[in-house]
Amino acid sequence: MKIGFCYDTKGDYGYAEDNLEYTDFVSLHTISEIGKAIEQNGYELEYIGNVYKLRDQLIHNTFNCDMIFNIAEGFGSRNREAILPSLLELYQIPHTASDTYGMSINLNKHHTKILVNSIDIPTPKGVCFNTLTEEIINKIPDLGFPFILKPNTEGGSMGLHLIGSMEEFIRQSNYLIKTYSFELLAEEYIKGSEITVPIIGSGEKAEALGVVTILNEDGTDINLYNNSLKQIDNVINTTTFKYGDELKKKIMDYSVRIHNFFGLYDYSRMDFRISQDGQPYFLEINAMPSLCRDCSFEQCGKLAGMTYYQTIGRIIESARMRYGI
Ligand SMILES: Nc1ncnc2c1ncn2[C@@H]1O[C@H](COP(=O)(O)OP(=O)(O)O)[C@@H](O)[C@H]1O
Ligand SMILES: [Mg+2]
User: Is the pTM of this model over 0.90?
Assistant: First the structure.
């Protein structure tokens, strides 16, 4: 079986490989590690690249893969992650990861939270807006200070701020609306632990691999998993969960329920915070989470006796099972 590999690189969009401002795209190193893992699973591999390269192959009839391994994040709109799966759906090409619907909805943190709340999973209070009206300003004190301000449809902690005053809120909102152009989300700040839950599989076969807690190097809770902490790697990711098995199981169950509620495919990762009184709050879905070396998938996979390449293999098997190929 031949697998085509689709991804975006920073270079495709004019960013230098070491640029830390636009953080959505994977590194060339990760592309090569995933590529090697696909081959180690016995598949023939073609490095295709982004949606434009895929489109060219389809138009010129040079596409000759049996399925696509898709980690292309897309660029430029709130549907950016959905564009490549849409093209694949149009041409009826099997692929790993979620479809157009799953990819679009996972990028809208506000809508996702409203729906997640509807299945009785707690989320932080929030207000979503694209203009600073008096009505919005009046709702802010309900969130308490400090609170979180972030773009509603970005990732990689881009534009993330902890806001300490009304004056700072107005200043940062004006700046972020100009910079990111989409909506902003102001959210109650959940002080406590930062956790993330990798999931593999689809439907009844979906399974949470474990719970990863992200800590400062000295073992304390991180206040904010911001852009520089994500990039510079001075945090500890641990699969040891300090709140006990009951809460761990509850969070893993929540995560699988969210994955299946939205009908996500093959793998995803759910971000939560646990408040200081031990209550989990769901923050967001990552329907195209990082598969870099030492990511939560590799870490939790190891606990189940799987190597990195076997974990990637499970993602491919999940897609093959869905398509019956
Ligand atoms: N309501 C919140 N309370 C506490 N921390 C938050 C909250 N929202 C976001 N954060 C912090 O910001 C980080 C990034 O936010 P998140 O919603 O996961 O967006 P993304 O990872 O897509 O940029 C989180 O991992 C967490 O550290
Ligand atoms: Mg996140």
Answer: yes
